[in-house]
Automatic annotation (TrEMBL):
Coiled coil: none
Cited PANTHER family: ELECTRON TRANSFER FLAVOPROTEIN ALPHA, ELECTRON TRANSFER FLAVOPROTEIN SUBUNIT ALPHA, MITOCHONDRIAL
Pfam families for this protein: ETF, ETF_alpha
Residue numbers binding FAD: 239, 265-266, 279-283, 296-303, 317
Family (UniProt): Belongs to the ETF alpha-subunit/FixB family.
Protein name stated in the entry: Probable electron transfer flavoprotein subunit alpha
Complex and partners: Heterodimer of an alpha and a beta subunit.
Organism in which the protein naturally occurs: Psilocybe cyanescens
Cofactors (names): FAD
Gene Ontology BP annotations: fatty acid beta-oxidation using acyl-CoA dehydrogenase
Compartment(s): Mitochondrion matrix
């Protein structure tokens, strides 16, 4: 594994301190219909590792915000919860949310030193938008961090080149607010604690007149199986499964027998075998389950980037030279159409 290092030096908006400030992280908590996303729980854990205060920010419609606040204030390490409700926040859009974050961070009484979120599609648009307005950089997909209280600098690691190299990035104290997103599989989810009870504070929304982007609709693929992003077991299929019908008929019974989520390679998704929400890889979801089964997947570098941190990787492929065998803990050179039905039957007994 290659490692590279770099240092970010950027003049941001002026904020003067007599001494190096103690870390105070603002964590953007994403939720859907009142249920906090698992990636945001990992972001809370990352924020706690900074060693200072942790404030959670909850936005949304009045229908859901209070329920999320009640959950957030009980998470270990959270010292305060800020919340803002508005019809405009019912389906949060970066163009609508960025003025609220900018107001929170640029106020004279703001003490935030870090802004944290999960590496989600929404956050990858929101955080850079706000950081650019404040003339500060954003570090994405962080897998580890360390804050030096003496110098006020924070050192991050993040994968680059599809995970083939690890970049070490140090953001010095000259950057008063450090923005970063975290890879959910690299940090444990924050745990709720009955002993925790954070301070709760309402924040006035910042209404955006005539927003340039309007939410039209959200389409979610429904399944009784575990969510791919947080499942402890994943069964994935590739282009070798021939078509959508064969993909479903072959993989789904095995996944059900294992209590696993179903994933797919980009080739399988592009061919129409599986929904885009099931794609695992550099341009899909990054997973790190206890068990990852790669069936008929050659192991292109883009796919490996999304699953190679899995605890146990099992690969089945007819090609003995398939790259997937280089990262597999258990490999079987065989026809998946012979192996999978037999394995499914044995698991059902």
């Amino acid at each position: 594994m290659l490692r590279t290092s770099s240092k970010i030096c950027r003049s941001a908006f002026t904020r003067s301190y007599a001494t190096t400030p103690s870390p105070h992280a603002l964590v953007f908590l994403e939720h859907r219909a009142g249920i906090i996303d698992s990636g945001s729980l990992s972001a809370l854990t990352a924020a706690e590792q900074l060693g200072g205060k942790v404030s959670a920010l909850v936005v949304g419609s009045s229908e859901h915000v209070q329920g999320v606040v009640d959950q957030a204030k009980k998470f270990k390490g959270v010292t305060s919860v800020l919340h803002s409700s508005s019809p405009q926040y019912a389906e949060p859009l970066p163009e609508v949310l960025s003025p609220l974050l900018e107001k929170l961070l640029s106020g004279a009484d703001s003490s935030f030193t870090h802004v944290v979120s999960a590496t989600s599609s929404s956050a990858k648009s929101l955080l850079p938008r706000v950081s650019a307005r404040l003339d500060a950089p954003t570090i994405s997909d962080v897998t580890s961090l360390e804050h030096d209280a003496g110098s006020g600098s924070t050192t991050f690691t993040r994968p680059i080149y599809a995970g083939n190299a690890i970049s070490t990035v140090r953001a010095p104290s000259s950057i008063p607010i450090k923005f970063f997103t975290v890879r959910g599989t690299a940090f444990a989810a924050a745990a709720a604690s009955d002993a925790s009870e954070a301070e709760v504070k309402a924040v006035d929304p910042v209404e955006v007149a005539d927003p340039p982007t309007v939410h039209v609709k959200t389409t979610i693929a429904k399944s009784d199986r575990p969510d791919l992003g947080v499942a402890s077991r994943v069964v994935s299929g590739g282009r070798a499964l021939k078509n959508a019908e064969t993909f479903e008929k072959t993989l789904y019974p095995l996944a059900d027998a294992l209590g696993a989520a179903v994933g797919a390679s980009r080739a399988a998704v592009d061919a129409g075998y599986a929904d885009n929400s099931l794609q695992v890889g550099q341009t899909g979801k990054v997973v790190a389950p206890e068990l990852y089964m790669a069936l008929g997947i050659s192991g292109a570098i883009q796919h490996l980037a999304g699953m190679k941190d899995s605890k146990l990787i099992v690969a089945v492929n007819k090609d003995p030279d398939a790259p997937i065998f280089q990262v597999a803990d258990v490999g079987l050179v065989a026809d998946l159409f012979d192996v999978v039905p037999e394995l499914t039957e044995k698991l059902k007994k």
